[in-house]
Amino acid sequence: MDIFFLVMGMGLCILVLFVLYRVVYGPGVFNRVAALSAIGNKTLIILLIMGFVYHRVEMFIDISMVYALLNFIGTIAASKYLEMEGSIV
Amino acid sequence: MIKPSDDIIIKTLARVLAPFILLYALYVIMHGHHSPGGGFQGGVIMGASLVLLAITHGLKETQKRMSEKSVAIFSSLGVLIYAGIGVLCLILLGNFLDYSKLAKLLNVPLAQARSLGILGVEIGVGLAVMAVMFSIFYNIAMGGKRSEKDNR
């Protein structure tokens, strides 16, 4: 089962690179924000898979919850920035 | 200055989510010695809940719950708790932050005194970090203006 999770995690790591292309070259800001959010989701799953591989899921669940939370707040801040046209701060 | 958002979905979601974020921050502070986390991380999560409120409900609404005065009080109180526990151990003829000396004062076994001492220090760190995080966000958001009145 460890091999399965390891392969899944490596596949997700490769998928992150494809989404990273959308972040860097993506046309427009909306694509970039959506792609950043997708990278956050993938990182969350990769963290949980790492927990399974190291047999310490209960530790990695804490980290992944904080990551999801901060990713959510970051996405809201970015969309707020778009709504106000450059004046969140 | 951050204006309040008009979107009812974002506002409702933030209002529902904020107490749970605070609860999770308390969990991270309390469980700092069993799992990843501790005072600093819990304080940052607490600050994140305040930042979420400020983004969605506007700075004015957030100031009713966390005014600039209480930010200053909380940040000083956190440092006071941290340094106070340290100096208390000094007074009880130990080293700085030598929690085992607190056993006589708290009337508990030695190991429990150490655990309680670390918990107290982490609560102090969490309070200070939460207040300073929000203070930094607030000062950046105001753009150097002193208060809401100067903005008009």
Describe the protein in words.
- The complex is a heterodimer of chains A (89) and B (152).
- With 89 residues, chain A is an all-alpha fold.
- Chain A is built from three helices and no strands.
- In chain A, helix 1 (2-25) packs antiparallel against helix 2 (29-54) and helix 2 packs antiparallel against helix 3.
- The radius of gyration of chain A is 15 Å and the shape is flat.
- The model of chain A has no long low-confidence stretch (mean pLDDT 87).
- Chain B has 152 residues and is mostly helical.
- Chain B has one domain.
- Helices cover 74% and strands 0% of the residues of chain B.
- At the A-B interface, helix 3 of A face helix 1 and helix 2 of B.
Mean model confidence by pLDDT of chain A? 87
β-strand percent of chain B reads under 5%
Give the helix level of chain A as a range of percent: over 70%
Counting helices, strands and paired strands, the structural category of chain B is mainly alpha
Order of helices and strands of chain B: HHHHH
Q: What percent of residues of chain A are in strands? A: under 5%
Radius of gyration of chain A: 15 Å
Report the count of strand segments of chain A. 0
- The 3D shape of chain A can be described as flat
Structural class of chain A: mainly alpha
Distance between the termini of chain A: 48 Å
Assign a percent range to the helix content of chain B. Answer: over 70%
Order of helices and strands of chain A: HHH
Q: Termini of chain B, distance in Å?
A: 10 Å
Oligomer: heterodimer
Could you name the ranges of chain A where pLDDT drops below 50 across 5 or more consecutive residues? none
Overall domain count of chain A: 1
